[in-house]
Amino acid sequence: MGDSPYHAVEDGMNKTMTTALATALALASCADPMTVAESAGVRVELQWSVLTIENASSSSIYHFAVDRALVARIEWSGCGFSRVVDPEEECGPGIRPGEKKDIPTRTISGWGDSPEIVAYWWHLVPTPEEGGFQRDSIRALVLRLPYARRRSD
Fold it and tell me: For residue 101, with 0-12 CB atoms within 10 Å meaning exposed, 13-18 middle and 19 or more buried, which class applies?
């Protein structure tokens, strides 16, 4: 068998197949984000099962994410949309500077209804004349999915 001219070809093919398989498995196991967006010190990264929001700004941020198909139907209320007296009690801790938060994608409203997710975020700023806090401008980061996962009706 060692003298067969086909043995060398088969041996080379086995090495090539093994290398190709190892490369494919290595690439498949990587946790590369499907999409990343950044704005003013906030980085949002979308992977298959989690949306990660990282805050590199100088103050806490508050956020929510929604499938883009629902954006026109959002009822804008909640943390910072009216005056907030105690942010910790009324809004929760937010994401503090230097921290990040993982949000399971299955908890995002409308997840999979369109090929895009919109991550909204804002800061709460003091209102000295009224006391308490209110939101500053709302920022939106659009994250495009590489596929459109549709729900069955």
Answer: middle
The residue among 102 and 153 whose pLDDT is bigger is 102
Cβ atoms within 10 Å of 14's Cβ, excluding its own:
10
Q: What is the mean pLDDT of the chain?
A: 78
Q: Are 149 and 110 in contact (CB under 8 A)?
A: no
Q: By CB neighbour count within 10 A (0-12 exposed, 13-18 middle, 19+ buried), where does 126 fall? A: exposed
pTM of the model: 0.71
pLDDT of residue 49: 85
In angstroms and rounded to an integer, the radius of gyration of the C-alpha atoms of the chain is: 24
Are 151 and 112 in contact, with CB atoms under 8 Å apart?
A: yes
Which residue blocks in the chain are alpha helix, DSSP H?
A: 5-29, 87-91
